[in-house]
Design a protein that fits this description.
Strand order of the largest sheet of chain B: 5-6-7-3-8-9
Oligomer: heterodimer
Number of domains of chain B: 2
Helix content of chain A: over 70%
Distance between the termini of chain B: 30 Å
Order of helices and strands of chain A: HHHHHHHHHHHHHH
Shape of chain A: globular
Order of helices and strands of chain B: EHEEHEHEHHHEHEHEEHEEEHEH
Structural class of chain B: alpha/beta
Strand content of chain A: under 5%
CATH superfamily of the largest domain in chain B: P-loop containing nucleotide triphosphate hydrolases
CATH architecture of the largest domain in chain B: 3-Layer(aba) Sandwich
Number of helices of chain A: 14
Number of strands of chain B: 13
Distance between the termini of chain A: 33 Å
CATH topology of the largest domain in chain B: Rossmann fold
Helix content of chain B: 25-40%
Radius of gyration of chain B: 25 Å
CATH class of the largest domain in chain B: Alpha Beta
Largest interface: A-B, 26 and 35 residues
Largest sheet of chain B: 6 strands, mixed
Chain lengths: ~260, ~325
């Protein structure tokens, strides 16, 4: 863990070597999701609610998903851009160092410009929380934290899976963006507005539903039955990363180096 | 120390003709060809040796290095390095080795060299005292002091290579793999790198395995040569053995006081002849160089003598020809 922060420090230094580019990219990262948020806002100007969900509730959904996404893009970027590492042969170098490949790839790249996106989603979060009547208790705060953590884990898991494919295909698979970008766009709305099949897929297989929809029911006091299950449902989302790590380790064994 | 036995490795290579049509075809019906990169490679290397691992492009040098440094898994074969099998106990194994890829950097591009060194200190968990003493030694012998605070992207190739070699030795490796360490370096940097490799080999007893295309590297460093071609080991022996086996001719050039006397010595052929100079190719199997010189000195008033052996470059070319690789 200590090493991870050391990596972070060095790469942060690298990134601010190019200061103008860093600042401009961060600003850009602020406005891209901001426009998405504006479109949600405008949508609710036409319709008072979306399948029974108010603007502020959807905003909360949006914020949790985007915070998770921006954190994972910032801290797990190494897997997101892993195909480049294979193409350039840099993965060889990691293999001759006495640390796990997982930690080293994680530490190979950070995208600090995502701070723009993070800031924007935090603003959305504050906006939603200020306007929602939620009686906060410890369990609800814990739930909210778990939701964000769960988002980070799921996105990281998906990056990990698509990075694993690179061991066979060299180039990254654009298909996997259906899960990252698609998953993000989809899960910024409550899962209940979608059809049954989609709901099941994103609850049990790629458990985006556990990031915001299910625990949100608990926070908004809409949960029926065992409230505790709703509260800890983000933990199920976190477990998603375990098979991804197994897949990764299997992929590493099939690594064929390139060039000389 | 290093025991390699019966390594085999093959790659599947996609086959495709040039052109767009062929490219599209290959998407739906990819054709593969299996290339045998290594075939039954075995050798043993003892502590403190410097071994030159040579062969033409595509012979399997890099593949071997990648297998014994833990990057690739072979199809079959055994390998034990200080008790570890590289592809099974990767993390334990790589603690003992340093690897320099001449064509790839291991330093972080945008930060000063020293930052990379500190990061390596944490990656390898090098104790503070070891790190300090190694750093001092490396700074002194590789003349790094002026370079450590410069970002890597601003270093020249020679400077960078010195920093790379320094980086691979911070953790006191017992074995150093050098994959073309002098590629693209100027004469001064080459000398510096070679001297340094000799120094750490003698002072720290680091075992060095070196792949290179530059035969003067081999001459300056390696006692022993392993030659491979088309994935097979062809020769394993000392440089002297190699020379004895393949050097069949030497050139003797003599300057003397003007003379027009004709001369023919058995076992030599005249390469050039002027009034004051004669150049002879000596067939070492028939006559010794010293005999040739003594015959010459009886006939001429010799001013200067030069004896040239076939350069190692040429021996290697002959060698490749002999093995048809």
């Amino acid at each position: 863990m200590k090493l991870y922060f050391k990596y972070m420090k060095v790469l942060f230094k690298s990134q601010i070597e190019y200061r103008t580019s860093f600042i401009l990219l961060s600003i850009g990262q602020f406005f891209i999701p901001f426009l998405v948020f504006v479109s949600i806002f405008l949508l609710f100007q036409r319709f008072p609610n979306l399948a029974g969900w108010s603007l502020y509730e959807v905003a909360l959904c949006y914020a949790v998903t985007h915070i998770g996404f921006s954190l994972s893009e910032c801290f797990a970027r190494g897997f997101d851009s892993f195909s480049g590492m294979i193409v350039r042969g840099e993965f060889d170098r990691l293999l001759v160092r006495p640390r796990t490949t997982f930690l080293q790839v994680l530490g190979s790249k950070f995208e600090f410009t995502r701070v723009g996106r993070l800031l924007q989603s935090l603003m959305a979060l504050v906006y939603a929380l200020l306007n929602l009547d939620i009686v906060w208790s410890y369990d609800k705060i814990i739930t909210l934290v778990l939701m964000i953590a769960s988002g980070v884990f799921i996105f990281t898991g998906i990056y990990l899976l698509s990075a694993t494919f690179c061991f066979w295909t060299i180039e990254g698979l654009e298909v996997m963006n259906i899960l990252t970008d698609g998953g993000r766009e989809m899960s910024q709305y409550p899962l209940s507005i979608y059809k049954e099949g989609i709901k099941k897929f994103f609850t049990y297989i790629i458990p985006f539903g556990t990031v915001n929809y299910l625990p949100l029911l608990h926070i908004l006091n809409r949960a029926e039955g065992n409230k505790f299950l709703y509260m800890i449902s983000p933990l199920y989302g976190m477990v998603f990363i375990i098979p991804c790590i197994f897949a990764w380790n299997y992929g590493v064994k099939h690594y064929k180096s390139t060039g000389s | 120390m290093i025991e390699v036995e019966g390594l085999y490795k093959s790659f599947k290579v996609a086959q495709r003709n040039a052109g767009v049509t062929a490219a599209i075809k290959s998407i739906f019906n990819p054709q593969y060809k299996t290339v045998q990169a290594l075939e039954d490679i075995s050798f043993t290397i003892d502590e403190g040796e410097i071994v030159g691992y040579i062969g033409p492009n595509g012979a399997g040098k890099s593949t071997t290095i990648k297998i014994i440094s833990g990057i690739l898994v072979p199809d079959s074969g055994k390998c034990s390095i200080l008790g570890n099998t590289p592809w099974k106990n990767r993390i334990n194994h790589v603690r003992n080795i340093g690897v320099v890829f001449g064509q790839r950097s291991q330093l972080w591009w945008d930060v000063p060299v020293m930052d990379s060194y500190y990061l390596l200190k944490d990656i390898y968990k090098i104790p503070e005292t070891t790190f300090k003493s190694n750093l001092d030694l490396l700074t002194a012998t590789l003349d790094l002091s002026a370079l450590l605070s410069t970002p890597v992207r601003q270093l020249s190739l020679g400077q960078r290579m010195r920093c790379e070699i320094g980086a691979s030795l911070l953790h006191d490796p017992k074995i150093l793999f050098l994959d073309e360490p002098t590629i693209g370096l100027d004469a001064v940097s080459k000398m510096a790198v070679r001297n340094f490799i000799n120094t750490i080999n003698q002072e720290k007893k680091v075992t060095v395995i070196l792949t290179t295309h530059d035969m003067s590297d081999i001459e300056a460093l390696a006692e022993r040569i392993i030659l491979i071609g088309k994935g097979k080991k062809l020769m394993d022996g000392t440089l002297t053995e190699l020379k004895n086996r393949f050097v069949t001719h030497k050139t003797v050039t003599v300057d003397f006081a003007a003379s027009t006397q004709d001369l023919s010595i058995k076992g030599t052929t005249v390469l050039s002849r002027t009034k004051e100079r004669i150049s002879l190719a000596v067939d070492l199997e028939t006559i010794k160089v010293s005999d040739v010189i003594s015959i010459l000195s009886q006939n001429f008033d010799i001013k200067d003598v030069a004896v040239n052996a076939q350069p190692v470059e040429e021996i290697i070319v002959d060698l490749y020809k002999e093995f048809q690789i």
